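QA checklist item 7 of 12: single-chain prediction sanity check.
[x] sequence parsed
[x] length recorded as 781
[x] structure emitted
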Amino acid sequence: MSTFLYKLGKAAYDKPWHFLLSWIIVLGIVIGMIGVNGIHSSSEMKIEGTESQKVLDQLAKELPAASGGQASIVFTAPEGERLDTQERIPLIQKAVNDVYQLEYVINPAELAAQAGASNAAGGDQAAQTGEANAEAGQGAEASQAQAPYGPLIVNGVPVIGVMISADGSVALFQFQFTVQQTSLPESVPDTVMTAVNGAVHQDPGITVIPSESLTTKTAIGSTEAVGIVVAAVVLFITLGSVVAAGLPLLTALLGVGISVGGAFALSKFIHINDITPVLAIMVGLAVGIDYSLFIVNRQRRMILDQNLGAREAASRAVGTAGSAVFFAGLTVIIALCGMLVIGIGFLSTMAIVAAVSVFVNVLLALTLLPSMLGFVGERICTAKARNKSRALANKTRHGLAHRWVNGTVKFRWLIIVGVVAVLGVAAIPVTKMELAIPSGASANLDTTQRQSYDAIAKGFGEGFNGPLLLVAEPQGASGKMTPEIMYQLAQELQKHENVSLVTPMGINQTGDMAIISLIPKTGPTDAATRQLVEDLRAPNSSLAQAAGVTIGVTGFTAINIDMSSKLAEAFPLYIGIIVILSVIILLLVFRSVIIPIKATVGFILSILATFGLATAVYQWGWLHAFFGFDTGGPLLSFMPILVTGILYGLAMDYQVFLVSSMREAYVHGHKGTASVVHGYDLASRVVLAAAVIMVSVFAGFIFAPDAMIKQIGFALAAGILIDAFIVRMTLVPAVMAVFKDRAWWLPKWLDRMLPNLDVEGDKLISKLNAQDNVSMKAKVG
């Protein structure tokens, strides 16, 4: 491997224009494809096979009108004023009517008029019978339990789809689209808001607040640029020149452009979630900068320490550090692709796009970077750096890294116990971690999502922010759903302690399915709502048996509940897959049994502490003002799987670069703790710089507008901070000092089976040194 990469690096250095133009052509093709196919993305996160998705698919097939996306608009009045005044009611009514006239919006009145006259008559008669039965069954209890809200009445007739709170300060207009939210043209939400604002603009006292489904969210903001600026500063400090620092940034940005652009170019044919490109940018920038940094730093060290020419140093850097880059990138790719086994479509797409981003950046580091070094030539090291290197050549340098590793080796048992204790304490909040899709309840106070959520909760109860859609079918194969059965079921459902409102919506034309809207009393992410969904679905529940039906539950809230459950079930399987595959890779790279096990145990400590901190910050709300959010809430349901995959791969990056340097020292004659200290001295500076860069890039996303991106950015930044600085640069040398030379033990039978990948480039360097000796003898002779 190292010999092949050495030749590749030399070819790229010698013919830089060939490689540069090749990558420019690739970028041009990507841009051209985007121009032809356009960019398509949505917020849809669908998990096939879940109960809610099955019900939604069934509705889309048998009753398409009921399967469309839902939206709502909240009207509020100033403190102490009402909306149901003679002046304001006509404005609200006009707004409602104008929305119902829009394309893609279902008009309930027109829908009812389209039904056949006989069906409508039969339905009205049955509805009246059902209502009578319901009234007789509930009696006075219904009037006592009347909710503090009701329909908005105009001239004795309710305005369809609008409810008003008891104090008249809040009105809620709920409506439905003809298609799912993700299939709506981008202009529809804006058209809806234009119609509403146009109708009520005459009264400045009416405030219009759209629901989250009608707002355009920006996934990322301007703070991400701060991370890139910090990365540039760290690169300059580490490499000592603007030219050298600019190369990793250039290759990383090009890698992100090609990989994310490629994903957008194909988005017409594959579903791209809004978070997918952001994730690819996060990972691509971080690994792209780090991988190029490792190679450029190795070239400069060879020039300054071994007095090699820039061409030979670049070739050897690609052959040695490039091998480590290749296997580090492969580990990240395997960790990401392990998500495919889970079988969740949108998560698989995220993983593939992020893995492609890593793959492209590995290729750029091994091909484009040496070609750029060819353009730079000997200028990669300034005269000042060369003179400084010569002045220090005969001096013993004991910097902070040397003192740190010596202290770690000396107090190894204290370090091991201390690190385990600290990370164990940080992991304690994991036992209370809750998973869901963040709702308006945890959005910032100045956002329309939060204002809408709070206004609805104040006027009608939190449950109105997460309505459930029920599909009831007769239990017998030949049974029929009648209005009497539908209203009987509605009566039983209303008795549940966590049900606020039940609204029968109708029966399909074949008479074998009834649609019912149900409003819980609790919010969409509450545990009580999750329990309500389980109660409704239970086949032997008293609710279903009393009406002789089976109940299916869907809607945005039910879909999110199912998603969280599915991801929680898949998490252990995923962990097992990536650990086994990555242990195999580390076994091949280090030819050791102990090191892969040690690396995996260290990662488990890192990931538990990371999720513990994420729970304390984003669920419990610790330091919320510092991290730019107002209210805590459940963690993003797919965050643990996503972050675990990315962090495992990146953690093994540092493991490869740090421990391969220790192995290189061991192979070259440093025994016992001397190999640990020597290898640490060589690699710690660049690993430290790489970790700071990666933390900076991820931390830039903590202040993004989107709550999901915030949590992912925080978890990745905290995870790298813990794993790189506490585990890899502190715990690893301490454990290596305990095992000493035994750390490299490998059974002879396994040693014979495993191929020698020569990741450290020892065979390559020996071969090149032999060639140099032959050339020297030939010149002397």
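[x] summary fact logged: Residues 66-138+147-216 form one domain.
[ ] second reviewer sign-off
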